[in-house]
Design brief:
Blueprint lengths: L42 H15 L9 H11 L12 H10 L3 E6 L4 H8 L8 E4 H4 L6 H11 L6 E5 L2 H10 L4 E4 L13 E3 L4 H4 L7 E5 L5
Parallel strand pairs: 1-2, 1-6, 3-4, 3-6, 4-5
């Protein structure tokens, strides 16, 4: 997750906020460009997608004189390890899993900035490799994401245990191609609903459950931080 203590401040026009006591005006949802809705992706497309997202978050047109420098600052900031923090159970959990002999990897819809982020976070040291959507050329929840992931790991889907925190984007598509799936459900018990798969609330529990042995354990990286 983004580190709230890391400085990535930008100037915003405070007049965009509704004055106290005045009802807010409903803002229509922007129409997402078709290219951003396709599963296929690459570094250029991801950068364009994030430009589009940031422009709407800041309510600035992309041709605004201040936008280019603002976007570059944000893009660079979130490519640095110090901009991110991992959940407090991750270091212990990955260490325990690594000691059991699993080959640990992570997969994410993030772009290749994630490689530098992973190298700079000591908690993620047990991960042998990371696969981003731009490495694989496709985004979740496309089944191709998971097929290509297994090919990169040189394992059939049945031999790669997949741990993810999103029932729609992780659990369902991984299960459809035959991967054993474990849902990492970090929600408080009061928010729990019927589980779409075997689930654990924290990473260390994966090593404590006596799960079947697999040569590779792939953890969707957004589950970690």
């Amino acid at each position: 997750v983004p580190n709230p203590t890391a400085d990535a401040s930008t100037d915003r026009d405070s007049s965009a906020a509704s004055p106290a006591g005045r009802p807010r005006t409903a803002i229509p949802r922007p129409v997402v460009p078709t290219e951003f809705l396709q599963p296929e992706t690459d570094e250029g497309l991801e950068r364009r997608r994030w430009r589009w997202i940031v422009a709407r978050a800041l309510a600035l047109p992309e041709d605004h004189p201040a936008f280019a420098s603002c976007f570059e600052a944000l893009w660079t900031h979130f490519g640095r390890p110090e901009a991110w923090r991992v959940f407090d159970d991750v270091a212990l959990g990955l260490t325990k899993l690594d000691r059991t002999g699993y080959a640990l990897a992570a997969a994410s819809n993030f772009d290749r900035r994630l490689h530098a982020v992973r190298r700079g976070l000591p908690e993620l040291a047990p991960l042998r490799t990371v696969f981003t959507s731009t490495d694989l050329g496709v985004r979740k929840p496309s089944g191709d994401f998971f097929h290509r992931l297994c090919r990169r790991l040189r394992c059939p889907p049945q031999r790669v245990a997949y741990v993810g925190d999103d029932p729609r984007d992780d659990v369902a598509p991984a299960r459809r191609i035959g991967m054993p799936v474990i849902w990492l459900d970090r929600r408080p018990p009061a928010a729990a609903s019927p589980a779409p798969a075997a689930f654990v609330p924290r990473i260390p529990a994966l090593a404590d459950t006596g799960a079947p042995r697999f040569p590779s354990l792939t953890l969707f990286v957004e589950s970690l931080g």
